[in-house]
Amino acid sequence: MHYVSADKISKSYGIKPLFTNITFHISEGDKIALIARNGSGKSTLLKILAGKDTLDDGTLWVHKDVTVALFEQEPQFAEELSVLDNIFHYKHPVAEAMRNYEKLIASESKDPDALSAALAKIDELGAWDFEAKVHQILSKLNINFLDQKVKTLSGGQRKRVALAQVLIDIGFEHKHVLLIMDEPTNHLDVAMVEWLESYLNQQKVTLLMVTHDRYFLEDVCDVIWELDNEQLYSYPGDYQGYLEKKAARIENTLANIDKARNQFRKELEWMRKQPKARTTKSKSRQDNFYEIETKAKQKVEDNQVELQMKMNRLGGKIAELKKVYKSYGDKVILKGFDYTFKKGERIGIIGQNGAGKSTFLHMLQGQEAQDSGKINIGETVVFGNFSQQGLEIKEDMRIIEFVKNIAENFPLADGSTISASQFLTLFLFPPEQQYTYLSKLSGGEKKRLQLLAVLFRNPNFLILDEPTNDLDLPTLSVLENFLSEYPGCLLIVSHDRYFMDRLVDHLFVFEGDGVVRDFPGNYSSYRIEERAKEKGKSAAITGTKKTEAEAPKPEVKIAAPVVAEKKKFSFKDKREYDQLEKEIAALEAEKTTITEKMMDPNLNYDQMQQLSNRMVSITKLLEDKEMRWLELSEYIS
Prior knowledge:
Elements (H helix, E strand, L loop, with lengths): L1 E12 L2 E12 L3 E5 L6 H8 L7 E6 L3 E6 L11 H5 L5 H14 L5 H13 L3 H13 L14 H15 L6 E7 L7 H13 L3 E5 L3 H7 L2 E6 L2 E6 L2 H35 L6 H17 L22 E10 L2 E11 L4 E6 L5 H8 L7 E6 L5 E4 L12 H6 L4 E3 L5 E3 H7 L16 H13 L5 E5 L7 H13 L3 E5 L3 H7 L2 E7 L2 E5 L3 H12 L3 H6 L27 H27 L7 H29 L4
Parallel strand pairs: 3-7, 3-8, 5-6, 6-7, 12-18, 12-19, 14-17, 17-18
Antiparallel strand pairs: 1-2, 1-4, 8-9, 10-11, 10-13, 15-16, 19-20
Helix pairs in contact: 3-4, 5-20, 9-10, 19-20
């Protein structure tokens, strides 16, 4: 069933065409990733499909039974209302029952009569499965501030609330849902991103998504769309396949342009020899000439940011931290931390939000003092800080003025220099755009300008704090290529696992309570070890050390679902299959029992919370065991 059909649709922003005469279909079960440069019209296309923007031309049809849910980069809320009221805004009996129940268990009074009535309503609606799903979403996204007004939230909290809202919304009796997501992984830590991957893979939902997270893209989506030079191209398969097919498409287009140019030269010679009075036949050839001319003069624009710089000389002494302690009241950030940085080091920093990652970066740069211990920075070190805060400007100004305030000229690696305007052009800010005010730039353009401002100072120690947010994939790819050859020191905080895997050699793992572990490997190696520990197999991992060459590379999918090969149904498989049937039946029975217990009006809050937590666990266990049962059932002929 086609959810959406678009026929020759077009849209311009002012005089700039975003896409022209594009045609596509979205069918039930499709999971599509949309890739394009910033400013190419990705977000506009998503909004058009969600009915929040209009077409200039063409026909767009959305099936009448399909509900379109949109997760935007800048979510809109009722600012004066609480998080709870915003999440359960949907006008539906289940939503109202959930809102009432969550409000009661979050309240201090916990009125037993009201709680009993709320439980009875959920039971009457048969919504305990959905309640468990809601509980899981709120827990995994760390939303424990339901009574706060939305206007008091930070940017990251707002994004998580918006994500919870849309994931919960699509559960309210919508049989056919098209979920549209614009950069859903921004402001999520890695654990949340991994959970969202798993969640979307388990849901029967049709998905169109913009993301710069390539592991997330590969694990969730099976088709990649690219919006390029006003046209839409579709590439079935993974990210690596997309890169290969795109390269082949550009090569084929260039070959066709060369062929058209040769034909154009011959046709031009013929046109010049013709007399003014033309026959019908020659008139036809004249018309054909103009078609060939259009093809011959076609340009394949694959403009990319060009990164090149002359790095300041880095001396023998980089940075030394000796017995460094740092706390905020009872919260310990560092507890006797020792480390000596070496030339060319590439370190990733990971840990839970609030573990002290940003504080560590501020202390290293002298922006914040340690409680005790020593931090010695080499005299030749020039820090370049690409921070989450974005561009730091005191007042609105034009792009060119902003760059010239840093320097008029920029030295290149070959010894030459270029002007501020030329450097802006390398960063895809053409001369006609350089007099635009900073306030008029998109989020991605501001991020690109921020990167330019950092590199313009020729740093030899780069600190990148969530650098991938708001950067489009083409720019991100160029940045990765540049950083992979960068001779200075790198310190990276990022939730983008592909970015980390490609660039870092080892990790500082902020484990909390002042403990920082130096892990010898990339992020994927770390997660493999952590999963093994979670399964009680840490001894096997520590007994077999992997070399750096054996560590997973970015091209390899991480935590990809295992696809069962067709094989004979063995005795071991049969025993597991029978056991799963018994376990599933037992879990279903326990689920029914817990539902009955939750109806007891004499339950206190702690008992209710224990039962609710067990319900969430059972729901997850059932999903896992039913999935394995289905895999095994495929072997039975």
